[in-house]
Design a protein that fits this description.
Number of strands: 0
Oligomer: single chain
CATH superfamily: MFS general substrate transporter like domains
Order of helices and strands: HHHHHHHHHHHHHHH
CATH class: Mainly Alpha
Number of domains: 1
Structural class: mainly alpha
Shape: globular
Low-confidence stretches: 1-5
Helix content: over 70%
Length: 470
């Protein structure tokens, strides 16, 4: 498959690396949240699982408004620093502070109502601030890297830093928190969770400073697109009329549901279903999984270059299916350790296609409407990611309640172990099958993709010419 370039100047290697480093902070924040928030409030704060599920449902309802509004406002933002950078800069310090606040609930008050209220408030605040950075960071990717070679190579670098941030988020807590599932009710466990939040905040500050200082260069060719941005309701009506985007939503939602369920239940699953009583070993197995995801990125890039992002996603999703089932039903640590290598390769494919496809959709939309609306599309994607968490927690609540595990018990029975295996294996497999169907029907590939590249080059040349006119 030949690649067509655009009139937008290529981005230097140093800038691409600095841009990708933002993924360390972004994924540290997201994955510390995904990995620890359920375990912390279920096992340490001891909120009933149905209360936690309710909190996530209310949080997702908030996101139904927060994400689209943020995306729309981002597309309409016009400042001397561009559309995306002001949002990212404004979110940096508050996000770091919220990483600490996530683990400082009023436990001493000994009130489920008070702790639930705190839980819900920090959920909403965390997501509002995280969205302000993440949505604009991703929108900037599709705008800085329009050239297909730049987009592909930067995507590979980003995945490497995604894995670095993810590995850090999953591994270092297991070294600090000695009793990560609070099986032994140690009084120091609360403080150890709070130390994790503080270290995460520092990592976020450093990574975001690097990207804001050296990694953000908004192309001038889009500088007037804020003036032609659509109204709020028209924006999302057009999004939902885009058939390529609608097909993409199936694998996007599905892969994030699977990615989300893994860290959420990993500590409980590996402790009770597989029989791993060592927090360090839990961290090491997750480390192997995500190292393999990073190591497999060149494979998925080669598939994308030769056959397109659609095929890369389709193969990745299918390859992910079998290992995830075997891992869920692993009966000992050695089996889980071996299978984690193969699950990591599938995970890498599931992550790689995501940014490549959504950027292709945004390219085609710009050709159709003349205005680049990256924020609006990533707003819907961000909402889907939060929706995936809500769906996961509703399913967790139903399954845990069916297994008579509404409140945390340090020694669950056989029914609970089977429930964990269902949630980590059968449920993700069903979701991935549906995702593969959506990916199969994703229509931007082959001649259509090449024609889009040609038209996009012409459109950007026209925009550049208008900017140069007095």
């Amino acid at each position: 498959m030949s690649e067509t370039t655009t009139t937008i100047q290529k981005v230097s290697t140093g800038t691409r690396i600095a841009f990708a480093i933002g993924e360390v902070g972004d994924n540290t924040a997201l994955n510390i949240f995904n990995f620890l928030i359920f375990t912390f409030y279920f096992t340490v704060v001891k909120l009933p699982v149905l209360w936690i599920s309710t909190g996530f449902i209310l949080w997702s309802l908030w996101n139904a408004f927060n994400d689209p509004i943020t995306g729309w406002l981002s597309d309409k933002t016009k400042t001397r620093w561009g559309r995306r950078v002001p949002w990212m800069a404004a979110a940096t310090i508050p996000l770091g502070i919220l990483m600490i606040l996530l683990f400082t609930p009023p436990i001493d008050a000994n009130s489920d109502v008070l702790n639930f209220a705190y839980f819900l408030i920090v959920l909403i605040l965390f997501d509002t601030i995280y969205t302000a950075f993440n949505l604009n960071y991703n929108a900037l990717f599709s705008e800085m890297f329009v050239d297909m070679r730049d987009r592909s190579s930067t995507g590979k670098i980003r995945i490497s830093f995604v894995m670095l941030g993810t590995i850090f988020a999953y591994l270092f807590p297991s070294f600090i928190i000695e009793d990560i599932t609070n099986r032994y009710n140690r009084p120091e466990t609360l403080t150890q969770f709070q130390i994790v939040g503080l270290i995460a905040a520092i990592i976020i500050f450093v990574a975001y400073f690097i990207i804001l200082k050296w990694g953000c260069k908004e192309p001038k060719v889009f500088s007037k697109d804020a003036e032609t941005a659509m109204g709020f309701f028209t924006t999302f009506k057009k999004n939902l009329q885009n058939k390529a985007f609608l097909w993409f939503l199936f694998p996007a939602l599905g892969t994030w549901m699977v990615i989300g369920i893994l860290p959420t239940l990993a500590p409980l699953h590996m402790t009770y279903a597989i029989g791993i009583d060592d927090a360090d070993l839990i961290g090491i197995i997750l480390l192997i999984m995500f190292l393999m995801a990073a190591a497999s990125t060149p494979l998925w890039e080669k598939i994308r270059v030769k056959w397109g992002a659609r095929m890369s996603g389709l193969v990745g999703i299918i390859f992910w299916l079998i290992p995830i089932m075997i891992f869920a039903f692993s009966t000992n640590p050695v089996m889980a350790f071996v299978v984690s290598f193969f699950e990591g390769v599938g995970l890498g494919g599931g992550l790689y296609f995501y940014d490549q496809c959504i950027a292709e959709i945004i390219d085609e939309d710009e050709i159709t409407h003349g205005t680049r609306r990256s924020g609006a599309y990533y707003a819907v994607i961000n909402f889907l990611i939060r929706l995936s968490s809500m769906i996961n927690f509703v399913i967790i609540g139903i399954v845990f309640s069916s297994a008579d595990w509404q409140t945390y018990v340090p020694n669950p029975g056989v029914d609970t172990v089977f429930a964990l295996r269902i949630l980590m294996g059968i449920y993700p497999a069903i979701v991935l099958i549906i995702s593969a169907i959506g990916m199969y029907f994703y229509p931007i590939h082959g001649e259509r993709l090449m024609e889009n590249r040609r038209k996009l080059t012409e459109l950007h040349a026209e925009k550049q010419k208008k900017l140069e006119q007095p």
